[in-house]
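Lecture 7 notes. Example A: sequence first, then its structure tokens.
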Amino acid sequence: MRILLIEDNERLSGFITSSLRAEGMTVDAFNLLADGAAAMDTMHYDAVVLDLGLPDGDGLDMLRECRARGKATPILILTARDGLSDRVSGLNAGADDYLLKPFDIEELTARLKALMRRPGAVLGLHLKAGNVELDSVSRDLTIDGKSIVLTRRELEILEHLMRRPGRVVSKSWLEEALYGFDEEGSKNSLEVALHRLRKSLETAGADVKIHTLRGVGYMLQS
């Protein structure tokens, strides 16, 4: 899952980013509305965490504009504005959820996962390919009914390939999906992660294979 975070408190933004990444999410963090809006226009996000009081404007304005343009991306408002009228305004503007500061990171994570479980939020929450099954919300992976533990990066690659079984996924697309704007992968990091993923699948007895089409990309086949 790729999350857009728009929060101007750098310490809080860093804490949220590291916590969500530990949950297997890719996070792009910005402290200005303009930068967040530009990112949203160029990248697909599964959810947005949006502060309201930002240096270059009010998050509600961005929220209203997104909904006016027909963007259905789930948006969770994260703010210190605790008045009833503030919550009502946020929800009426099109927010999917509203969380007050201070908050527990476990609650924020749970609320984001709940948004992902809503019908239409993310297609295919439970993925299956051969004897490999993945719950994309809980991040639970089983192969032939046995629970398997992969690294965060391996699990992300597997999820993207399982969402497109039998179809070629380009290397550039995978790299874009896996690494946030502030997460530069090394030249061979994707290949290294794919090698480890192949070994893990083979060791666990998976009946699917990841094929490399040189100069094109990768494909999962059972």
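Example B, a different protein, same format:
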Amino acid sequence: MIDDIPQPKRPYSLPTILSPDEIAALLEAPRRLKSRAMLTTLYAAGLRVSELCHLQVADVDSACMVLRIRQGKGQQDRYVMLSLRLLPLLRHYWQQDKPRTWLFPGPDPTKPITRETVYRICHHAGVQAGLAKPVHPHTLRHCFASHLLEAGVDVRRLQLLVGHQSLRTTSRYLHVSPQALHAIPSPLDTLPLDAPRESRP
């Protein structure tokens, strides 16, 4: 009988989206090179925080300019773009910190950094950047998707980049993309109405 009881619907809220200027301020805020490299990788590739934590040094393919994501959500591998700006930052970080297996190791170099640590770094960077909006790792993933939509990338291609199994999940970014909203005229704008007259005091 329990299976026949309808489950309450979960409230749906739109993700927080940062402007390009706010993203730039966030990525430049951390003083530590490793923190800047992590946040920049999250945004440049649109990664989930778990995917960032499990990146390995060998997953950076500079010859093909891709990052290999091992066993992402749904236990599927995929490739994402390696930004031309991200690559020299990762090289600089690698030369300084010399990570071996994990690209972003934790205090124990044989283990990857934890999700909780990435969350703290992201939140602290948002405070340092003076952002009024709440910032967490998934915010950068949302911004990656929304900014690509604004740049003209189609939803199907975006679905492959972010690793969504359902196109419906990807299409929610259409609701938060100002460019997508501005591209569709209101039906009011098509009516044969006279221009509104300014009221006189």
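Note on Example B: The longest strand covers residues 66-72. The mean pLDDT is 81.
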